[in-house]
Amino acid sequence: MKKLLIFILGLFSFFPSYSQEVIEDNGIPSIIRSFLESTSPEDRPEIDGEELFSSVVIHRFYGERNFMPAWTKNAKLLEIAYEMRYEIGQSKYDGLIPDDYHLGHINLYFDKIESFSKEGQKASLADLAALDVLLTDAYVMLSSHLNMGKVDPESLKATWNIQRNSPELRIDLRLEYALVNESIRKSFEELYPSFSIYKNMRYGLRQLFDDQSRFESEQVATWKSIKTNKTVKPGESDNIIPEIRNRLYFWEFLQPYETDDEKIYDSIMESGIKKLQKRHGMESDGIIGQGTIRAANMTPEDLIITASVNMERLRWLPDSIKDQEVILVNIANYQLDYIQKKDTILTSRVIVGKSYHSTPQFNTLMSYLVFSPTWTVPSSITRNEIVPAIKKDNQYLAKKNMTLLTSSGTVVDPNTIDWNKTNPRNFPYIVRQEPGTHNSLGLVKFMFPNKYSVYIHDTPARSLFQREDRALSHGCIRLQKSFELAKLLLSFDPNWTDEKIQNAMRQSKEQTVMLDRKILVVILYLTYWTDGVGNQYFRQDIYDRNSEIITAIRKRGPKLSGV
Q1: Is the CATH code 3.40.50.300 the one for domain 321-528?
Q2: Is there a catalytic annotation at residue 474?
Q3: Full-model pTM
Q4: Domain locations in the chain?
Q5: What is the rounded distance in angstroms from the CA atom of residue 209 to the CA atom of residue 266?
Q6: Catalytic residue chosen out of the listed positions 105, 145, 280, 457
Q7: Domain 201-303+534-554 has CATH 1.10.101.10
Q8: Rounded to an integer, what distance in angstroms lies between the CA atom of residue 42 and that of residue 559?
Q9: pLDDT per residue over 90-120, tens digit each?
């Protein structure tokens, strides 16, 4: 945004004085004005039934230039008009829909005007004015969508509470600057999310569109849904092998080769399967199971949808993330990254919420950690899990190192309760698990106050980190490398040696340690990204959050207030 402020400050020094200009396009300004002012305040203007999406910005833009056309001169299309039309078409590589920006109507007007030109005639002023307004409206809305996203994330069912600042963009000034400097492409690129990953993802999406074209023309694979109830290991034979091999050819994970028996899963094909598994976040073990089948069934169109959704998510994020010390959790990738000065200092596997206890998306600040934590069991878990377990085993609380408390904190002897008559729905006591190696929070928890009561913590169930599907918790984030993260966060104090941290993690009482600074925590949900060398990665939509977003992206007619 600093670049924007710089050119805003200097813009008025070269802003054209349209009141003194000799108007060669006589008549067009009045037609443009009539297009914008012909309807009631409650209705948006239309051109040939095509509703304009901008009202405030487009009026302000043309008002500043006395309604002079921006994209034509002397009844001829300027080169920059062609550039604008091209960029509208290119918006599909941002995961957007070019027809949202009047591309169909714009093409019709281009064809009509060019046809007149070929015949040595001038197009009608009404057509020139209509095209001018449509191009301007397209610029305004495309700029808005590239900067903030087309979809309002807070309107979705899935919780999104990652806040960002929204300074006024002044798209009208940006457009004027782009016109004067003939820099439409650069103007749009400046609105991309500032994360370098965005341009990589954009390039990846362009490749997927090429794959889709190839898929439609070559028909390398029949691409009917493959189904099987068993796993297939290298060396085994199965009827699904030829079809999967064809799909590996299509994605260029394999080069075509001769086989003695096309139904045999051979070692050459295994190398292609491992590449497919890596792209989709599975263990590259070469075993064809349900996850591998699901990945093999995905068509280019499926992946285009996934990429489009995640590029939209990236536009919702605050740009400031990239410059901060941040703990970043990608729920769909079951991974935490601790980043300092744009370098990843620590990467760890995590366990996230089950589908019916889904981990929300939000950002907040971490301020302290707790060694040897107690766990106050949420009432829902007490009702649904703890009380039924005690009824089956009256030693359950003792085995789990749990204490029963009244609401005032008084310890209650569980042997004084008739558990057979206890109703879990109105159970009056609090259950607290004491510190220890079997505590459900493990040996340390990392705290960042939030309204969801979600935090990051250790866990005694270490074996679960080896699973591919790690959506297993009640919503909190279980961390594999808890000691390593605690060590890094406390590195500001040399007194926190490895030994001291290990001892603190094995005490009989909680110990709270304040950090010397607050660290940004961002919990998001990305199911597609690309790395710096162009490799694409996809993850399973474990919470089924993508479908709602793609539906909203494809919905016609963004109505944004103040635009």
Answers
A1: no
A2: no
A3: 0.89
A4: 2-194, 201-303+534-554, 321-528
A5: 31
A6: 457
A7: yes
A8: 13
A9: 999 999 999 999 999 999 999 999 998 888 8
